[in-house]
Amino acid sequence: MPSSSRQVALITFDDVQVLDVTGPAAVFGAANDAAGYTFYRVHILSPQGGPVTSNCGLAVVTKPLASVKPGAMDTVLVAGSSRRSLQALTQDRDAQAWLQRACARARRYGSVCTGAFALAACGLLDGKRVATHWEATDILGRRHPGVDVDANALYVEDGRVWTSAGVTTGIDMCLALVARDLGDAVANAIARRLVLYARRPGYQSQFSTVLAAQEKADSPFARLVDWIRTHLDGELDVASLAARAGMSPRTFHRRFTDALGETPARFVETLRLDHARTLLQTSMALKTVATQTGYATAGQLSKAFARRFGVSPGLFRAMHAEHAE
Predict the structure, then answer these.
(1) I need a labelling partner for 247 at 20 to 30 A (CA). Which of 55, 60, 80, 230 fits?
(2) Does the structure show a pLDDT above 70 at 201?
(3) 130 pairs with which residues across the strands?
C-alpha cells in the first residue's frame, strides 16, 4: 500500500460532456474498490469552482482550481466541452497558468474529447501525437499546426501525454492508466464491474462502419448493406454486388461511394476485418476465421489485418487473451 494516494485532477468547464467526467471518475473509483484502499484521490475542478452545467443539464459539483496545489497532482485530465467554454479558457490567464504548472509537474497529463483544445491553447501538446473527437480533428490540426492529430485512434499515449477521442473512449484510456499503475488484472476486474464488453486498445478505430451505414438507413443501399453483413464469407466483388443491386458495375461503384462515403471494396474489407476482430477474441482457428470472413487463406487475412490495424491477428489475439484473464 502506498504511503499516500495518487492525486487526480479532472478539469471541467461549463457545457462539459458529462461522460468525459463521470467515465474517468467511475474508473478511478472502481480502481480504489478493487485495490481495497484509496489509491486514487480524484479532484473535480473548474476555473471558478461551484456547480458546472453539463451538456445534458446535469450539474457537476466542482472545486476551484486555486483550491488545489498544481504541483501535487499525479495525473491531470481535461474534459471536453463546448467551443464557447473552451475559447473562454484562452481569456483566463489564471486557469492557463494553473494548468501549465500542473502539467509540467504531473507524472502524466492529457485530455478526453475536445479537452485537447484546452491543452493545445496552453502549448502543452506541441510536437505531440494526440487524439480528439473525430468531428474536431480537422479543426484542432488547423488551429494548432504543431500538434500531430491522429484522426482515427481511440486514445494515444505519447510520453507523458495521454489523449482520447472522447465520450466513452475516456473510459478506455483510464482503464489503460489503471492497468499501467495497478496491472491488467485490476483493470480487467474494473471492466467487468462496469459491464464493458471489452477493453478497447488505443489503436482501434473511432469509427463503426456498421453505425455509419445505419445512419444512412434511407440510402438505396440499406438492404444491400444488411445482406453484405450476413454474407461476409461469400463473393462480394463489385460485379457481384452490382448485379444484386441491379446496376452496371460502373454505376454501382459511383452511386455506392457517393451514398456511403467509401468504395464498395473498402466497405466490404472493413466489415470483414471488424468481424475478424470479433472472431479472434474466441478460440476459433485462424484459418476458420479467414474462411468465415471471406479470405481464401489465413495469410491473406493476416496481411489485410496488419495493414489496417498495425498488428498481426496473432498479436491481437494474445493481447485480448491477456485482457480476458
Answers:
(1) 230
(2) no
(3) 149
